[in-house]
Design a protein that fits this description.
mainly alpha, single chain, 11 helices
């Protein structure tokens, strides 16, 4: 009930703001003019949005990465995105550790959260590295699961933040390609994606952990 109320509130706020935001977001000249005079504000907003999407996930993280790569370039865009997701990552872990399970399960998908917790208990930091390297994994949910686990927060935060960096580069390289049309950035994104996939499977193999357990609903 609480989770549904929060989602409905976010949806309502989005619908109310949409008519005002859409013209701004679709006019390239207007955005470029605004960023030319409000570069710092745009950068701060991007960091905050990335942190929010990790904590409450109202926006797809990859989409924000494309936007940052498009408007700020692959290097500055990656830095801003990484700062934001790192901030959100840390906030989610600390909140989970402070608030505890009884309150969190009212907002988070209980079964998926429990599955992440079981995998952490079984494989430790290996799961953290593999989940943040592989695509289409519940990586934001993992930050909450880490906070609920007995893992020490500082090493877990450091490992997850570094592992997130690869997908930050991938998303921003795609954004740079969308802006410039240069195939070089598309090739960078493809190579990083393949490299992240191979690295994740190699680490999992060394720990005798099947990454397929992340995706299986019945993992136990």
């Amino acid at each position: 009930m609480i989770r549904a109320a929060v989602l409905l509130t976010l949806l309502g706020a989005g619908l109310l703001a949409f008519p005002y935001l859409w013209p701004f977001l679709t006019e390239r000249e207007r955005i470029e003019s605004w960023l030319a005079t409000h570069r710092a504000a745009g950068a701060i907003a991007l960091v905050v949005l990335n942190a929010i999407q990790v904590v409450i996930a109202p926006l797809p993280g990859a989409l924000l990465g494309w936007i940052s790569g498009y408007w700020f370039g692959p290097w500055w865009g990656s830095l801003l995105t990484w700062l934001g997701v790192s901030l959100g990552n840390g906030v989610a872990m600390v909140l989970a550790r402070v608030l505890g399970r009884p309150l969190l399960i009212a907002f988070l998908p209980r079964e998926r959260l429990a599955r992440m917790e079981r995998l952490i208990q079984r494989y430790g930091l290996t799961v953290v590295i593999v989940v943040f390297l592989l695509p289409f994994t519940p990586d934001d949910l993992l930050a909450w699961a880490i906070g609920l686990s007995p893992l020490p927060l500082i090493p877990a935060f450091a490992v997850s933040t570094l592992a997130r960096l690869i997908h930050v580069w991938i998303a921003n390289a795609i954004g740079a390609y969308l802006r410039s049309g240069e195939l070089f950035w598309l090739a960078v994104a493809a190579l990083l994606s393949v490299g992240a996939l191979l690295l994740a499977w190699r680490i999992a193999w060394m720990a005798r952990f099947s990454p397929l357990e992340i995706y299986r609903e019945d993992a136990s």
